[in-house]
Amino acid sequence: MKTVNLNIRISEEMRNEFKRIAEENAQNPSALMRKWIKNYIKENKNLGGIEMIENVEVHEVDFIEEFEKDISNTTDTGKHAYVLSKINNGEFYEVSYEIDELGTGNTYYFKTEKEARDYIEKENV
Asked: Per the domain annotation, does 7 fall within a domain?
């Protein structure tokens, strides 16, 4: 992956204070910026109108369907799948990404089953 520079304009005072505080906390300023950018992209990625729900309290999980992900173009030989489940009697729908049935990578929640299925379709390209 090719890397590029991103230049931003801030006051010298702000830059110096940021660097000083980062160093006091044993943090690399560039690594902090990359982390913030990555989180911003993740939180604001265009999902085509699909709304993800945060902080769902899960009481009951009912399995609906599993969608195996085609990973033939990778060197990984394991099984990757999206698992769709109904949460709390249909209050929410959960999509979890599972690898080799050992556990989940990421888990996302949606208000409707349609939104959850749309997300799987979009991600499972």
From this structure: no
User: How many other CB atoms are there within 10 angstroms of residue 14's CB atom?
Assistant: 9
pLDDT digits (tens, 9 = 90+) for 112-123: 999 999 888 888
Tell me the sheet residues that pair with 107: 96
Token representation of residue 1: 């992956």
Q: Does residue 108 belong to any structural domain of this protein?
A: yes
Q: Which domain holds residue 27?
A: 12-44
**Is residue 113 assigned to a domain?**
yes
Structure tokens at 120: 């799987």
List Cβ neighbours of 124 (8 Å cut-off, separation of 6 or more): 67, 69, 70, 82
pTM across the whole model: 0.55
CA-nearest of 46, 49, 53 to 118 is: 49
Task: Please give the Cα distance from 20 to 32 (Å, whole number).
Answer: 13
At which residue do the structure tokens 């959850």 appear?
Answer: 116
Question: b/e for 69-85, b at 16 or more Cβ within 10 A?
Answer: beeeeeeeeeebbbbbb
* pLDDT tens-place string over residues 52-101: 777 788 888 899 999 888 777 777 667 888 899 999 888 899 998 888 76
